[in-house]
Amino acid sequence: MKRLVLASVILAGLSTAVWAEEDVKIGVLMGFTGPIESLAPTMAGSAELALKEISDSGAFLGGKKIVPVRADSSCVDAAAATATAERLASSEKVVAFIGPTCSGETTAVVNNVSAPNGIPTISPSATSPALTTVEDKGVFFRTAPSDARQGEVLAQVAKDRGINEIAITYTNNDYGKGLSESFSKAFEKLGGKVTINAAHEDGKADYSAEVAALAASGAKDLAVFGYLDQGGKGIIQNALDTGAFKRFVMGDGMVGEKLAADLGKDMEGSFGTMAGGEYAGSEAWNKIAESAKIDPKGGPYRAESYDAAAVLALAMQAAKSTDRAAIIAKIKEVANAPGEKILPGELGKGLKILADGGDIDYVGATNIEFDDVGDVPGSYREMEIKEGKFESVKTH
Amino acid sequence: MTDVLNALVLFANFIFVPALTYGSQLALGALGVTMIYSVLRFSNFAQGETMAFGTVITILGTWGLQALGVNLGFLPTALLALPLGIAVTAGLLLLTDKYVYRYYRTQRSASITFVMASLGVMFIMNGLIRLILGPGDQNFTDGERFVLSASAFKEWSGLDEVLVIRTTQALTVILAIILVALLFWFLQKTKTGKAMRAYADNENLALLSGINPDRIVMITWIITAAFATTAGVLYGLDKGYKPLAYFHLLLPIFAAVIVGGIGRPIGAIAGGFIIAFSEVILTYAYKKFLAYLLPSDLAPDGLVQLLSTEYKLAISFIILVVVLLIKPTGLFKGKVI
Lengths: 396, 337
Known about the structure:
Largest interface: A-B, 24 and 36 residues
Largest sheet of chain B: 2 strands, antiparallel
Number of strands of chain A: 14
Distance between the termini of chain A: 62 Å
CATH class of chain B: Mainly Alpha
CATH class of the largest domain in chain A: Alpha Beta
CATH superfamily of the largest domain in chain A: Response regulator
Number of domains of chain B: 1
Distance between the termini of chain B: 47 Å
Number of domains of chain A: 2
Number of strands of chain B: 2
CATH architecture of the largest domain in chain A: 3-Layer(aba) Sandwich
Shape of chain A: globular
Number of helices of chain B: 14
Oligomer: heterodimer
Largest sheet of chain A: 7 strands, mixed
Strand order of the largest sheet of chain B: 1-2
Radius of gyration of chain A: 21 Å
CATH topology of chain B: ABC transporter involved in vitamin B12 uptake, BtuC
Helix content of chain B: over 70%
Low-confidence stretches of chain A: 14-20
Number of helices of chain A: 13
């Protein structure tokens, strides 16, 4: 027994040594536990699809492979996210981060780990408007559009559906506050009235007092900017139980299969927005996702995760090295025009063009085009609950 | 007339029913604390975790029963598993007493030593429940969800506002009444109950008259287990099982005990309801309620909310501080038990 343990320890040591020479490690830093734990595994899975495609092509940096290292960033705990990122950077020696997932933790990781150490960081889902102006020394990019835009789109959708008065509740963090601000500003500009704009804390057992206050404001509809595994769901559950609200307007953190499966049949006609749309690369991405048993339209940030991973790998290829600064310098070059357009599933082709010294424009699943601060313009899918399921109605 | 009815229904739906349910859960938890205090003479900080532990065992039992295909029709299956939860929790509390508290009792340690020991017990149980069932949320409610659903009420009354009563809410209040009645009967009428009161009143006199202290201590722990587990399970059925939520219950429970007067069962019950109703009444927004009652030109524009809901926990804290400053003995002062 003792010898067996010893042998496996030595083997494990050997294999790490082999990785260190041959393979490139990328950190998949996502909120596997916490308020978006039901979204994170599919997002990580989508990112790893791209990494696998790169590794399998055999053309990446002369035949190297990419090894994803999953780590839990917790979504809400900035200290835990920072510690995890620190560990990935120093002891796992990852070259870059895909993630983190939520806005608050992303700000912390960018400020404390990515910017000081110059680690390329692409978040597929951190959407707070505040991240546009974060002091990131150029290391931070995101493939999901900023909530400044989501708020406007969602306000327009709500107004178009005849809602003139609305109560708003948001999760008490950077993401919730940012989205509720941009939504209420846009909604009032369109002539609507916000009767109450109240925060809720995640992780509480009981939301009856919160719902009571929201219902007392007199609005017939409720906008929920929270998380579907957390307070957001608790609020909706309680509002349905007490008969306070029947129709809900939801931000992207609430749009997911699990919410529809648990409560969908009681909230018919509720709607929300999530990043996404019909792009040149959508069809190709749908095919890839479905073959891996991921529903490309069932929840947010799957295509964005794939794109984040693909952009990182392509930038490494363009830099012809895994040096962090060299990668950062190439990210915009491979993602933006001009160059040969690369769609999902064509990563191998992109790698070859780069190896031969050509230029590419990675379009990907979500029309990636970074601006000066690393944001994407993006578009949104309007989702409605029909017969207990989220259905994509329209893109904006 | 319809307006007045609407206002009343609104009040019942958003204030009375939730506060009554929450108050019952707090009262049961507070009774456990007050029993320990009057008989064993210390504040048991592990009460919240005891409730969580009882709930964990009950959840496991519920899953077992569900796997066997047993259910209770429109009532939650957890009720069948509740005796198991109580029994195992009682076992755990008796073991804790044997290996932790008994030592300090024979040493005749100061009350604060017991409190610190119970703090340690709390941390151990804290880990124990997470080892058994993990840190995540569990939903173990089954059976019929509503006694009175929104649509049924609307059809029956024809009012704009609806009154909803969940099965778990009705169950909480009914079970709380039964348990409290049983406890008072036990303390007032049975020989063991009287012995307990005597022991709580004056330990030395009770010992002289031949009361077996070990037996009294044992029965106190068993009663605490029964109340804590029932309160925990009802809370979990009503609001979902979250390990951390039970820890957070500790403050309102202690506030309830102190408001009512430490060591007084009737005080624990009154305190539970005072805390629960204060939390709900002070954070409710009365705009719609007043709009029904006042003439339309007097109807308020603002929300008429005294405190934002974020300050809910702070309310029990404020009440606790105010009571300790003004009337430290609580509402029902006097002899213990």
